[in-house]
Specification:
- The chain is flat.
- 36% of the residues lie in helices and 21% in strands.
- Helix 9 packs antiparallel against helix 10.
- The protein is α+β, with helices and mostly antiparallel strands and 427 residues long.
- It folds into 3 domains: 2-109; 119-294, no CATH class; 306-423, no CATH class.
- Strand 11 (256-260) and strand 12 form a beta hairpin.
- It has helices spanning 37-66, 72-101, 137-151, 154-159, 165-174, 232-240, 243-249, 274-294, 329-338, 410-423; strands spanning 2-5, 12-15, 22-23, 30-32, 108-111, 185-190, 200-204, 207-210, 217-218, 225-228, 256-260, 263-268, 306-313, 318-325, 346-350, 359-365, 368-373, 389-391, 400-402.
Length: 427
């Protein structure tokens, strides 16, 4: 185990040895803590031992090739072999030193979508919790056209509004699964081998989707855009280490790269109008930010709330669902207190029309509750609890959850549901 500071709020978080990630109990930020010193020491000493072995082997090869009369061609081969072994020794020694020193072993944020990250505009930016803002189609296309004309991005101008539906469909299946029907594709950099849209970077009027990065980046969440070209170290790597250097550092190190929020979202060996992309993404991010800024303010109570109560009918082996439209808080509170894991195993609070709005599930009873937002949204998490599974419902098969997802404090449950009832958000 180890204790690390949350990269978002600075709260000390304990990371369990069996888990690669940690979650801050204060702000909910998921992050990957740096490797512990004893773990780095083991890898460091292994690399140092291998480096010493390969270095000694290189010296022995050179010494043997110089002792006594030896054919010049054999000497040349021995020198080449010792050079390769020497390079391996150097790589191992460098990597071993990096592990022992801890170079680059910083806290890595894994999931920052729900955390408030300081904005480059010197003011806190509120993260998009539900549907990110959508820049109007005409406004977004006008911005793309204006900036493309300024930078001479003729390919973007030609494809604006003319992107292949088949390529967009392939992108939606491969790496842009979060793209919605109401989004307007603005630009597409296709790097797939067959140029069929299955890899690359797709920009819409809501977000940026990239096969180089596993998650969409909403325009309103973009804090920084930059690019990097291959440096001198890349060419030295090609010269000295060749394929071995590529294997260790990856081919992208030798390519032109586009960064968004310090994440590589596009990489290519060809020329790319980086100035165009930096300005375009920055302008679109500002536009989305202003849309979100205009809607800021204290959360208002949803205009409609629907309480959905599930009752298990043991005699029929079925469930009966009852809906109460615009219930009072007293009705919701009593319904939560009535949950018993059996006849009344769960309830749901819709922050709007049923099946059209977000909803909060409350499952369990008798001092053991699981709270989660419908779909892949928020879920209650207690980092102080373990990973042993707890059955929170006897009448609904499969309702077993790790202990860190179970809330044993009824007052805390009521507090979260009351907040959701009043604001439409669990936090």
């Amino acid at each position: 185990m180890g204790v690390f500071a949350c990269p978002n709020c600075g709260t000390e978080v304990e990371k369990k040895r069996s888990r690669a990630e940690a979650v801050c109990g204060s702000c909910g930020t998921r992050f990957r803590p740096p490797t512990l010193f004893w773990e780095r020491s083991i890898f460091g000493f292994v690399f140092l031992i291998l480096g010493a072995f390969f270095g000694s082997l290189a010296v022995v090869i050179v010494f043997m090739s110089q002792s006594g009369p030896v054919d010049p061609s054999v000497k040349g081969g021995a020198f080449g072999c010792s050079s390769v072994v020497g390079i391996l020794a150097l790589v191992c020694l460098i990597q071993g030193s990096r592990e022992l020193i801890g170079h680059g072993k910083n806290v890595v944020r894994v999931d920052a979508e729900d955390a408030a990250v300081p904005s480059a505009r010197n003011e806190p930016r509120r993260r998009v919790r539900r549907t990110p803002p959508l820049i109007p189609k005409e406004r977004a296309e006008a911005l793309v056209r204006e900036i493309a004309e300024k930078h001479g991005a003729k390919g973007v101008l030609r494809s604006l509004g003319q992107l292949s539906p088949k390529h967009l469909a392939n992108a939606a299946v491969r790496f842009a699964q979060a793209m919605r029907d109401d989004e307007t594709p603005l630009a597409f950099l296709d790097v797939s081998f067959l140029k069929n849209g299955k890899a690359g970077m797709l920009l819409t009027n809501r977000g940026l989707y990239s096969s180089f990065y596993s998650r969409p980046i909403w325009l309103a969440d973009i804090e920084d855009v930059s690019f990097a070209r291959p440096g001198v170290d890349a060419y030295l790597g090609w010269f000295f280490l060749g394929l071995l250097y590529v294997f260790i550092n990856g081919i992208r190190h030798f390519q032109n790269r586009l960064f968004v929020n310090d994440k590589v979202v596009f990489s290519t060996g060809n020329r790319l109008r980086f100035d165009f992309w930096v300005e375009l993404l920055t302008v679109l991010a500002d536009e989305a930010w202003h849309l979100e800024d205009a809607s800021r303010g204290e959360p208002a109570q949803p205009t409609t709330v629907v309480l959905e109560i599930t009752r298990h009918l043991s005699d029929r082996q079925t469930n009966e669902v009852r809906q109460i439209r615009d219930p009072s808080w007293g009705q919701i509170e009593q319904s939560i207190r009535d949950l018993d894991q059996d006849a009344l195993p769960s309830l749901r609070v819709w922050a709007g029309e049923v099946e059209q709005a977000p909803a909060l599930d409350v499952i369990g009873g008798k001092g053991q509750y699981v709270l989660r937002e419908l779909g892949d949204g928020w879920i209650y998490y207690d980092p102080s609890q373990g990973e042993e599974e707890i059955e929170v419902s006897q009448s609904i098969p499969g309702h077993r959850y790790p202990a860190f997802y179970v809330c044993g404090d009824l007052q805390r449950v009521l507090q979260i549901v009351r907040h959701y009832y009043e604001t439409g958000t669990p936090e």
